[in-house]
Design brief:
This protein is an alpha+beta fold. It has 5 helices and 5 strands; from the N terminus they run βββββααααα. Helix 2 packs antiparallel against helix 3 and helix 3 packs antiparallel against helix 4.
Length: about 130
């Protein structure tokens, strides 16, 4: 069976196509076989007050599109613009590779993967901000 496999902790919540689904008291596993489904683990969701850095802002746009709370067309241009800006600052090979994968996911309307690739940049961004404060 192909598709996305979600392994859920007890009582974990996940957003699937706008519906919040909560797991029961035991660990669970869902096999998502329908392509193009919008899924977000609520434990991974950014809350508006957490959107305080450039990478987090671009992640938040991807999250809003994924949740169906932002227009996909307008969001796509915001994502591409934000990723282009990040690529001017995050110059290391690993970050550039993540940004290329994020652009590819934007172009293919795979918003889960956009968010997944962008989230890998959060530790690097935190490191850069820590260096700036030193």
């Amino acid at each position: 069976m192909s598709g996305l496999v979600l392994k859920l902790a007890p009582n974990e919540r996940v957003l699937i196509n706008g519906a919040v689904i909560e797991n029961g008291v035991r660990r669970g596993r869902l096999n998502i076989v329908t392509p193009g489904v919008n899924i977000l683990r609520l434990r991974d969701a950014l809350h508006p007050e957490q959107v305080t850095t450039p990478v987090r802002r671009v992640c938040y746009v991807a999250q809003l599109i994924l949740c169906g709370e932002a227009d996909e067309g307008a969001g796509k241009s915001q994502l591409l613009r934000g990723i282009a800006q990040l690529s001017q600052v995050l110059l290391d090979g690993e970050s550039q590779a993540a940004l290329r994968l994020a652009v590819e996911a934007v172009e293919n309307a795979q918003h889960y993967y956009v968010l997944k690739h962008l989230r890998t940049l959060l530790p690097k961004e935190e490191q850069l901000f820590a260096m700036g404060r030193s």
